[in-house]
Write a structure and sequence with these properties.
The structure holds 2 protein chains of 2 kinds.
Chain A (H helix, E strand, L loop, with lengths): L1 H20 L8 E11 L5 E6 L18 E3 L1 E6 L5 E11 L10 E5 L4 E4 L2 E4 L13 E6 L13 E11 L25
Antiparallel strand pairs in A: 2-4, 3-9, 5-8, 5-10, 6-9, 7-8
Chain B lengths: L1 H17 L7 E5 L6 E4 L21 E10 L5 E12 L4 H4 L3 E6 L9 E4 L10 E6 L4 E9 L12 E14 L17 H30 L1
Parallel strand pairs in B: 1-3
Antiparallel strand pairs in B: 1-2, 3-8, 4-7, 4-9, 5-6, 5-8
The chains are: A mainly beta, B alpha+beta.
């Protein structure tokens, strides 16, 4: 019995020696490391600028008007994200009276060189690149004297600008018409 | 002459501006001695981020991130490097499940992807996948392709998806028939250790023999 134990011990030692002398038989070390990888998605952001011809911000509280007035109001849109986009704007008129309509009360000098009307929206004829500010959509608003009669006395007329943008990357258009881009919201006031 | 110079300058400026922006390459480096891996370049979202080219992705994007896995252990060892995916973090699963991720080695693009699934999954990389056996200075290049569906909804704007990969290394000593790595100037494996092992073994066997003789003598007595 003791002889067998002795043999086992000797064989174990020989195996140990062989293990040491024959490199590559066993791994020396193992170690591991974890990488936390991150995918982030981009976004589309813009800012509407409304200024006067003096370069000052158009007053938020509005201005007093009388029929025939021509009010300076320049509307531009700035790309404030890292991605280029197509852009469209809509001008919405309102009046604080259910009996009256604000339609036809305003006359705008639309910058048709850069903006094309299609289905009620003015589409910018190009791509707005990051940091770029578009040419003005319009710069003056005329209060149409023949429409704004005494019924509008003391009322508040409003003119608001809605803007929507859709990415131009991976989004081809047909014949240079930006309204053919994919992704425009189907509902008014939505976000692309 | 001035016109000519101006023309050359304009052409040079145009050529410079037309150069593509170099894609950021990532590195996974093993420095040896069972040390930590070094993951570069990292990002503001994660110091071990290997996806610098997958930032601000947009619907319709198909992007490729190149990752180089390097063995910078010394010349005495070769390493087997393994990779497995641990999946997406809990709050990232929804976003990442919309994206497709494919991983393959650069050297043989004809091979099947080692990973081809939604980005949140572990899929084919649930178990360890051996990227190869690397000698000192050796490397393996991975191409990771991210596909963002063009129909990705607006709710996924400005999202961040976190997914973990784990690398594992096994060190082996270099064998005689292995390719010879370039010399590093370090001392070779000291022969003294071999001698010590031999002497120790001899002494141990001697002690065992003496012990056996003594026991035999005791039994005879």
């Amino acid at each position: 019995m003791k002889r067998i134990k002795l043999k086992i011990a000797a064989l174990s030692f020989v195996a140990m020696i062989i293990t040491f002398l024959v490199p590559g038989t066993l791994a020396y070390y193992t170690t591991s490391g974890k990488a936390t990888n991150v995918v982030t998605s981009g976004n589309i952001k813009m800012m509407i600028h409304e200024t006067t011809d003096q370069g000052t911000a158009f007053p938020e509280e509005g201005v007093y008007i009388v029929p025939g007035d021509v009010v300076s109001k320049e509307v531009r849109v700035e790309n404030i994200c890292d991605h280029p986009f197509y852009l469209r704007v809509k001008i919405v008129y309102g009046v604080d009276s259910i009996e009256l309509s604000a339609d036809d009360c305003f006359k705008l000098n639309i910058n048709s060189e850069h903006w094309a009307l299609h289905d009620g929206w003015y589409y910018y004829r190009g791509i707005v690149t990051p940091g770029e500010k578009t040419p003005y959509v319009f710069s003056h608003v005329e209060i149409v004297g023949s429409k704004v009669d005494n019924r509008y006395l003391g009322k508040t007329l409003s003119l608001s600008v809605q803007a929507q943008a859709v990415q131009s990357e991976n989004n081809p258009i047909e014949d240079g018409n930006t309204f053919t881009a994919s992704g425009w919201p189907t509902e008014q006031g939505g976000t692309p | 002459m001035k016109k000519c110079l101006s023309l050359i300058l304009v052409v040079l400026i145009l050529m410079t501006s037309a150069l593509p922006i170099a894609a950021a390459e990532s590195h996974v480096t093993y420095s040896g001695n069972s040390g930590d891996f070094i993951f570069e370049p990292g990002s503001k979202e994660s110091p071990t981020d290997l996806f610098p080219d997958f930032k601000g992705v947009m619907p319709g994007d198909v992007l490729t991130q190149k990752i180089t896995v390097k063995n910078q252990a010394d010349n005495k060892v070769k390493v087997k490097i393994y990779l497995r995916a641990l999946g997406a973090h809990g709050d990232s699963r929804d976003f990442l499940s919309r994206l497709r991720l494919q991983v393959q080695t650069s050297v043989d693009n004809k091979m099947a992807y080692m990973f081809d699934s939604t980005a949140d999954a572990t899929a084919q990389l649930t178990e360890w996948y051996c990227l190869g056996t690397l000698y000192s200075g050796g490397k393996v290049n991975l191409d990771v392709t991210l596909t963002v569906p063009v129909e990705l909804e607006n709710i996924y704007q400005s999202q961040a998806g976190y997914l973990d990969w784990e690398f594992r290394v096994e060190e082996f000593s270099v064998e005689d028939d292995d390719p010879k790595p370039p010399p590093t100037g370090e001392e070779p494996f000291p022969i003294i250790w071999v001698v010590l092992i031999g002497v120790t073994g001899f002494v141990l066997i001697l002690l065992l023999i003496l012990r056996k003789k003594r026991q035999d003598q005791e039994e005879e007595a």
